[in-house]
Design a protein that fits this description.
The chain has an eight-stranded parallel β-sheet with strand order 8-5-3-2-14-13-11-9. The protein has a two-stranded parallel ribbon with strand order 1-4. With 356 residues, the chain is of the alpha/beta class. The radius of gyration is 19 Å and the shape is globular. The protein has a single domain, classed as Glycoside hydrolase, family 3, N-terminal domain (TIM Barrel). It is built from 13 helices and 14 strands. The model has no long low-confidence stretch (mean pLDDT 92).
Length: 356
């Protein structure tokens, strides 16, 4: 896009959502606010591939640099767009394959990463909030089969190959939920969550996949709305100790830190919407999500006074899509055909296991 088709302004630090399948005039006004950096899409924003492309084009045409467009598209039960998209299996299926054939699981993981990224890029989405690198301890209500496995090394390797596939397609990846959401049973969408383990235990297990991805240049990390009570009294996403001291300094992470949704129950205990957003930004987040609450979004935009650093802005700019294929030509692409056949095979295996 050239500057003539959109107003030139820096990206802000807040990601908001929209109500339906096309932009309303008041939403356009909201997206033109200097504090806004992008839009997160949900199932309600999707009707068809053609409609989705028109919507992302409209969002991208508003400003220069163009607003970021993100979506939760991990596979399994977390895949916002269905019709016209390949149904990606839950990541646990790759972990199960790894037990019998590690090399094949890495090949499949890379193809899946490339496929999910390629299909999203083809409709104008910049990045997906993936991969999930939480460990599967077996008790988490919200993570479950979204996790690859319990073994940190297995998760590290599979997540690396998914990330590599996404990168080859031209998409940034977001490792979540730092420093690890898999141990606790609580669902932070609906309740407070406290993990009472020592830092040493978290570091030796849950942090390992994050460290591996950071070493290999992961573009972004999403902290959990979990309180790790032996480390800090605040959830990781509000904690300068977790984000600055541990993630930036100890783990040497240089990419973007993206908060989880500020409207989740585990976040709403920490002040008004504007207070929560400011706390997350002050703790070290580069981008803060305010979803499913337009009143909260408007409150944030009217009350939060925040000017991101040039470095923070550069981290967000790197999340833009780097290349994309024509959606209508995907089915003729041999890489796409090979990846789809892998996914079909894994979905069949997963369906068989669910029947047992």
């Amino acid at each position: 896009m050239n500057t003539a088709s959109g107003e030139s302004m820096s990206l802000g630090s807040v990601m908001v959502d929209i109500a339906g399948t096309q932009l309303q005039s008041h939403e356009i006004e909201r997206l033109m606010d200097p504090l806004v950096a992008g839009v997160i899409l949900f199932t309600r924003n999707f009707e068809s591939v053609e409609q989705l492309k028109a919507l992302t084009d409209a969002v991208h045409a508003l400003r220069h640099p163009r607003l970021l467009i993100g979506v939760d598209h991990e596979g399994g039960r977390v895949q916002r767009f269905r019709a016209g998209f390949t149904h990606i299996p839950p990541m646990r299926v790759l972990g199960q394959l790894h037990e019998t054939n590690p090399q094949l699981s890495y090949d499949y993981a890379e193809k899946i990463g490339w496929l999910l990224a390629t299909e999203l890029l083809a409709v104008g989405v910049d990045f997906s909030f993936a991969p999930v690198v939480d460990l599967d301890y077996g008790g988490s209500k919200v993570i479950g089969d979204r996790a690859f496995a319990m073994n940190p090394q297995t998760v590290s390797m599979l997540a690396f190959h998914v990330m590599s596939g996404m990168r080859n397609a031209g998409m940034a990846s977001v490792a979540k939920h730092f420093p690890g959401h898999g141990f606790i049973e609580a669902d932070t969408h609906t309740e407070m969550a406290i993990d009472g383990r020592s830092f040493t235990e978290i570091e030796q297990k849950d942090l390992q996949p994050f460290l591996n991805l950071i070493e290999n240049g992961v573009d972004a990390v999403m902290p959990a709305h979990v309180i790790y009570s032996q480390v800090d009294s605040k959830p990781a996403g509000f904690s300068a100790h977790w984000l600055q001291t541990i993630l930036r300094q100890t783990c040497h992470f240089e990419g973007a830190i993206i908060s989880d949704d500020m409207s989740m129950k585990a976040a709403t205990e920490f002040g008004t919407a504007s207070e929560r957003v400011l706390s997350a930004l002050q703790a070290g987040c580069d981008l803060v999500l305010v979803c499913n609450d337009p009143n909260a979004a408007d409150e944030v935009l009217s009350k939060v006074n925040w000017h991101a650093t040039a470095l923070s802005h550069a981290r967000l700019i790197r999340l833009h899509a780097h290349k994309k294929m024509d959606y209508n030509k995907l089915q003729y692409n041999p890489l796409w055909q090979a990846a789809v056949s892998v996914v079909k095979h894994l979905n069949q295996k997963n369906d068989q296991q669910e029947l047992i």
